[in-house]
């Protein structure tokens, strides 16, 4: 697919993600990216591998699954209404069609085994108290109010990890040669999905650089604003073999404090001390927070 088709598709995916409870339709989504419904539907399916309706339905089910795990005591009817269903019966039918389990069965099966990786559900297996700061590479941890960040970004689909991030960084570097550093320092990696729930090939990773309000990236580069607000912010200095453990440490730290990830995406911010040649990474993990299900 030509590169200039990526931008409206990325923007449409973000629009859907931010409006899932409203269950936006094809015409509304196409209008949000200033394309005709027919043209937009064709390029979306070619780029994403799903129709707009399939993508939207999958995200609604995956978000509902996240809430079932994040709020194990919450009423399923309330969660059904929050994800845009008119009744718990309709929700249960759609959920079972997608996961081959009822919401109650899914919750009972997954909560004891939940082990969060990049992006996602409160960790049960790795409480923060099991790791010392020196073992985890944790330098700092706090709850902070972060400002919105306007970023230019490139997106790839695939398993979360170094390989996907590096390839996405190369894509962004090729498109913004005068703007993007050759090292990850100064870049952000944004993670939209929950790898315990979303299949690996459909997980979305954005590699981004912050831009000024008046800066306009070139053709094919999408722009988004990462939401400001309350975040768990944890700074790590680790080698490659410790990268996955940092996320387990972060979610364990959150669990010990009784705070829960919101529906917004997580992201990492990389510091100048990062050296890919030495497989050494210094970065913040930033996890958006909520404390109770929204009404």
What tags apply to this protein structure?
single chain, 295 residues, alpha+beta, Arc Repressor Mutant, subunit A, Multidrug-efflux Transporter 1 Regulator Bmrr, Chain A
Chain-wise SSE layout:
Elements: H1 6-18, H2 26-32, H3 37-48, H4 52-70, H5 76-82, H6 88-99, H7 103-110, H8 133-136, E1 138-146, E2 149-157, H9 162-175, E3 187-191, E4 204-210, E5 222-226, E6 229-239, H10 243-256, E7 260-261, E8 266-270, E9 280-290
Antiparallel strand pairs: 1-6, 2-4, 2-5, 3-4, 3-8, 6-9, 7-9, 8-9
Helix pairs in contact: 5-6
What do you see in this structure?
This protein is 37% helix and 22% strand. It is an alpha+beta fold and 295 residues long. It folds into 2 domains: 3-113, Arc Repressor Mutant, subunit A; 128-290, Multidrug-efflux Transporter 1 Regulator Bmrr, Chain A, CATH 3.20.80. Strands 1, 2, 3, 4, 5, 6, 7, 8 and 9 form a 9-stranded antiparallel sheet that branches.
Query: Strand-residue fraction?
Result: 15-25%
| End-to-end Cα distance | 41 Å
User: What would you call the shape?
Assistant: globular
Helix and strand element order: HHHHHHHHEEHEEEEHEEE
Q: Name the CATH class of the largest domain.
A: Alpha Beta
Annotation field: number of helices: 10
The helix fraction, in percent, is 25-40%
CATH topology-level fold name of the largest domain: Multidrug-efflux Transporter 1 Regulator Bmrr, Chain A
Cα radius of gyration in angstroms: 19 Å
pLDDT averaged residue by residue: 84
Structural class: alpha+beta
């Amino acid at each position: 697919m030509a590169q200039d088709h990526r931008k409206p598709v990325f923007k449409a995916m973000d629009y859907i993600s931010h409006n899932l409870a409203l269950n936006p339709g094809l015409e509304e989504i196409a209008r949000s990216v200033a394309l005709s419904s027919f043209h937009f539907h064709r390029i979306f399916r070619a780029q994403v591998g799903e129709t707009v309706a399939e993508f939207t339905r999958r995200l609604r089910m995956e978000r509902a699954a996240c809430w079932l795990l994040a709020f194990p005591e919450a009423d399923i009817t309330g969660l059904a209404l929050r994800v845009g269903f008119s009744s718990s019966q309709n929700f249960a039918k759609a959920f079972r069609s997608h996961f081959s389990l009822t919401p109650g069965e899914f919750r009972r099966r997954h909560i004891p085994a939940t082990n969060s990786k990049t992006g996602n559900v409160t960790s049960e297996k790795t409480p923060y108290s099991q790791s010392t700061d020196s073992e985890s590479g944790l330098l700092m941890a706090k709850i902070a109010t972060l400002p919105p960040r306007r970023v230019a970004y490139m997106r790839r689909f695939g398993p979360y990890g170094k390989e996907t991030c590096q390839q996405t960084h190369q894509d962004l570097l090729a498109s913004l040669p005068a703007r993007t550093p050759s090292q990850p320092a100064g870049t952000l990696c944004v993670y939209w999905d929950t790898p315990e729930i979303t299949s690996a090939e459909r997980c979305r990773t954005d590699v981004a650089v912050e831009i000024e309000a008046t800066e306009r990236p070139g053709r094919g580069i999408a722009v988004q604003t990462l939401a400001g607000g309350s975040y768990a912010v944890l700074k790590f200095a680790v080698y490659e073999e410790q990268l996955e453990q940092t996320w387990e440490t972060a979610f364990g730290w959150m669990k010990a404090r009784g705070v829960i990830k919101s529906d917004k995406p997580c992201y990492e911010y990389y510091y100048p001390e990062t050296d890919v040649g030495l497989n050494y990474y210094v970065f913040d993990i930033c996890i958006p927070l909520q404390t109770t299900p929204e009404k």
